[in-house]
Specification:
Chain lengths: ~280, ~290
């Protein structure tokens, strides 16, 4: 008999499966569960109470505002970048692609720091801004800028491989039939990329609402004014208000879950969307 | 989920056609390229260059002085060391997980496959407080480890755990498509020829997934090095012991020592860019290996 006994092999396979599932549970699944358990540790009233706290509500509002500005801007940028890169051949294309990807390689703290160097009190434009009484750092514009930086690659990253794989044939046909450039974009390209676009926007939004490091540098942590939801979690946590911290965390965890479910469903229906995902983190 | 998910170097995508006459047929090239370059320059290029200009103003001697202070050096060592350790541990367990997800059928497989992406989607602050609650001495997992004298939260081990959390999906998602494409006939042939399971793994499976495994580890490592949010909650942030480099930058900023903060940032930026180039090379190599099969 050439093959070894079947039984140890089966055992080995189960042992590996158990190791895999234990590791995954301990590192990824349980942290998600613990968020909700801790949030409801003192009952539903304590949970709701900490969410209806004025500072928590202000933090949620700022988080929504930040996403509402940075996501659409990055959406337009992502479409423009993907159109230029996927539809045309030009010199320096790979350099431009690398540049678009760059924010993914930069530590969140550094993403905040660079804006402090430009707009901060000692920064390049600091004195001029102070003279004109414009506040960017330790104010809402800084938070939005840092969030835009961190989330800028998401839509482009998703669309470029998708549009490259689709080629230019349909657009060229539309144009030869007399469509204008914009008609061609709205009626031909956009319907073709809509699911990829949705996927990119979902990831971009999740990151925009959840960004911590970059926002932490530029925020100044003024409660009710420049505190986003992730920053609010940190403050409550440092005050040992764990129910409050985990209640706010549960909102963001639900956002992550919705994003994940939507993304999984999208990818099940449209397998071609998986190409651009890896770097999108 | 087993179709290709590895980042394909975008510049290597299908070549674009121009019309036969050689003119660009599609409109909007100038508009979209102009918008893209303007946006990227204003948002990314100019701000990033500010870090290098600031550091240049500092001068090389002062720069070295800042970067080699024992506390800064310790933080850089911790960030790079713990990230490497986390990425390598994930290399082992990520391989087992990817293997289980690709090769085995078990109840809940879809669910486990989907939660691999959770670290991509879960805000780092949430991950940070959740991991801390879990691994604190009175937490669900901390409790189990405490009798063995293993402390995770507020130690260097905690830093590794948080970094393992953020880097896990990179390794699993890079390995899955490659494992899915493996020709199982080759493995069966090896076994028929008398190879043990371990020998088959070592000499047949590993050589073909090696490039993808390395790419995944490198991607995970580069993500972990810059990580801030999930680590600062679980680390305890003791200077020279559990203080990571991004926190060091933060601390310098809070003390209004902008040039010192920037000097540390430049060290991290340069290593990130070098890593990015290395990863691109790795991916091209891995792509070539996959096509060659």
């Amino acid at each position: 008999m050439i093959r070894q006994s079947q039984i140890p092999e089966e055992l080995g396979r189960y042992a590996l499966l158990i190791v895999a599932l234990l590791y995954l549970s301990g590192l990824v699944a349980l942290p998600l569960v613990v968020v909700f358990v801790e949030a409801f540790a003192k009952g539903i009233f304590a949970y709701l109470n900490s969410l209806l706290d004025p500072y928590a509500l202000a933090a949620m509002k700022l988080t929504l505002l930040t996403a509402a500005i940075s996501v659409p801007l990055n959406l337009v940028f992502g479409i423009a970048a993907a159109w230029a890169i996927a539809k045309f051949e030009f010199r320096g294309k790979s350099a431009l692609t690398t540049l678009i990807d760059l924010p993914f390689a930069v530590s969140p703290v550094i993403s905040g720091l660079i804006y402090v160097l430009i707009f901060g009190a000692n920064g390049w434009f600091g004195p001029w801004l102070a003279e004109h009484n414009i506040h960017i750092i330790f104010a809402v514009p800084g938070i939005i800028l840092a969030t835009m930086f961190v989330t800028s690659p998401f839509v482009a990253r998703e669309l470029i491989p998708l549009m490259q794989s689709q080629g230019n044939d349909e657009e060229e046909t539309a144009l030869s039939l007399g469509a204008s450039g914009w008609q061609c974009f709205w009626l031909v390209t956009l319907p073709n990329i809509r699911w990829g676009l949705l996927s990119g926007v979902l990831l971009c939004n999740a990151r925009a609402m959840g960004e911590f490091g970059a926002v932490s540098v530029v925020s100044g942590h003024i409660r009710g004014l420049t505190n986003t939801l992730p920053l609010h979690i940190e403050i409550l946590n440092s005050e040992y208000n764990y129910v409050g911290a985990f209640a706010s965390a549960s909102i963001l965890a639900m956002l992550a879950l919705v994003t994940l479910i939507a993304k999984t469903l999208l990818e099940m229906r449209h397998p071609e969307l998986r190409a651009g995902q890896m770097r999108a983190a | 989920m087993s179709t290709p998910a590895v980042a394909i170097p975008l510049a290597d995508g299908p070549t674009k056609r121009r019309s036969r006459s050689g003119f660009r047929v599609l409109p909007g090239f100038g508009l979209t390229l102009g918008c893209t370059i303007t946006y990227v320059s204003l948002l990314v290029l100019v701000p990033l260059s500010a870090a290098f200009v600031r550091t240049a103003e500092l001068g090389p001697r002062k720069f070295l002085q800042v970067v080699t202070t024992p506390r800064v050096l310790a933080s850089l060592e911790l960030s790079f060391g713990a990230s490497l350790l986390a990425a390598v541990i994930n290399g082992v367990f990520g391989f087992i997980i990817a293997w289980a997800l690709v090769r085995q059928r078990f109840p809940g497989r879809r669910l486990f496959d989907a939660i691999i992406d959770l670290p991509f989607a879960l805000p780092t602050a949430v991950a940070g407080i959740a991991l801390t609650a879990l691994y604190a001495p009175n937490g669900w997992i901390g409790q189990l480890l405490a009798p063995w004298g293993i402390k995770v939260a507020y130690t260097r081990l905690g830093v590794v755990v948080a970094l393992a959390f953020v880097s896990l999906p990179f390794i699993v998602r890079t390995l899955q498509p490659v494992l899915g494409e493996l020709d199982r006939e080759v493995e069966r042939a090896a076994e028929t020829l008398g190879a043990s399971r371990l020998q088959t793994l070592m000499w047949v499976v590993l050589p073909s997934v090696w490039p993808a495994l390395l790419t995944g580890i490198a991607l995970g490592f580069s993500r972990a090095v810059g990580e801030y949010g999930s680590v600062i909650f679980i680390a305890g942030n003791i200077p020279k012991v559990t203080e990571i480099a991004p926190l060091m930058i933060m601390t310098k900023l809070e003390q209004y020592q902008y040039s010192q903060a920037t000097a540390i940032a430049v060290v991290m930026l340069v290593s990130s860019f070098a890593l990015m180039l290395g990863i691109n090379g790795l991916q091209i190599w891995a792509q070539g290996r996959r096509r060659a099969r």
